Amino acid sequence: MIRVNDKFDVEWQEGMTVNSLLTILKFTFPMIIVSVNGRVVPKSEYGPTRVEDNDEVKVIHLIAGG
Predict the structure, then answer these.
(1) pLDDT band with cut points at 50, 70 and 90 for residue 66
(2) Which residues, 6+ apart, have CB-to-CB distance to 56 below 8 Å?
(3) Which pTM does this prediction carry?
(4) Structural element, H or E, at residue 18
(5) Model pLDDT for residues 18-44, shown as the tens digit of each residue
(6) CATH code: domain of residue 30
(7) Is residue 22 part of a domain?
(8) Nearest alpha carbon to residue 31 among 5, 57, 63, 4
(9) Nearest C-alpha neighbor of 58 from the set 30, 21, 23, 24
């Protein structure tokens, strides 16, 4: 089980990556920051970065304001 933002539980799947996790959660905002177990993952590494069972993932949507 993957815990996302301390509120979503996602069933872990073999070969799961940050990209596939974001797709499952339908997180499509273009400006987000993702960390896995406290390590920030650059957007360019979402595809190759694996998410393992029991990982803790944080996804923060960046929103501009004024």
Answers:
(1) low
(2) 2, 3, 36, 37, 38
(3) 0.89
(4) helix 18-25
(5) 999 999 999 988 899 999 999 999 999
(6) 3.10.20.30
(7) yes
(8) 63
(9) 21
